[in-house]
Amino acid sequence: MALTPDDVVTKQFQHVRFKDGFDPDEVDDFLDEIVIEWRKALEENVELKAKLAAYESGAAPEAAAPAAVEAPVPAPVAEVPAEPAPTGSATATAGIIELAQRLHDEHVAEGEAKRNALIAEAETEVARIRTEAEAKQREESARLERERNTLEARITELRNFERDYRSQLRGYIEGQLRELDEKSTSTDSTPVSAIGL
Questions:
Q1: Per-domain residue ranges of the chain
Q2: Is the pTM of this model over 0.85?
Q3: Secondary-structure percent of the chain, ordered helix, strand, coil, rounded to 5
Q4: Mean pLDDT computed over 149-157
Q5: 1, 69, 74, 171: which is deepest, by most CB within 10 A?
Q6: Could you give phi then psi for residue 22, rounded to 5 degrees?
Q7: For the chain, what is the radius of gyration of the CA atoms?
Q8: Using an 8 Å Cβ cutoff, are 55 and 61 in contact?
Q9: Is residue 68's pLDDT more than 50?
């Protein structure tokens, strides 16, 4: 796989559930690909610099290619690419690490922003539900208070009715008892023969 800088910039990693960051295995695999491609590029760079040095020294390009394959690069030529290669490699590595760190920071910041938005949304929802519950509780309390007042008024009304009814009933019974007493006293004074028995 030919790896380009755009591949590094656009690489998307899978998010891991219940942890911050990315799947470590996927990141390691991708970094391994980067290392392989970069080593190939560095080796090719060394070979091209050796060919260029051989060409500039006056050797034919055809002769430089077999010399590079058959024999190691001469000491002066080897020192020239050896010096910039680690610097280029270190710079490339530092660039990749910086890019990976920036991507990591962006994803962490995005995750934190999303988390904060979700928390704020949840707190708003909790406040709304609490307000609705308190309003419903006040309405229910007011309704129950009205119902209690109505029932207490009805109980008072029924007690008054009971008191009036008892006194009327007592008056009626006492009246009946008086009549009965009067009749019994009038029948006691009347002889039996007058009653017709």
A1: 5-139
A2: no
A3: 85, 0, 15
A4: 95
A5: 74
A6: -115, 170
A7: 54
A8: yes
A9: no
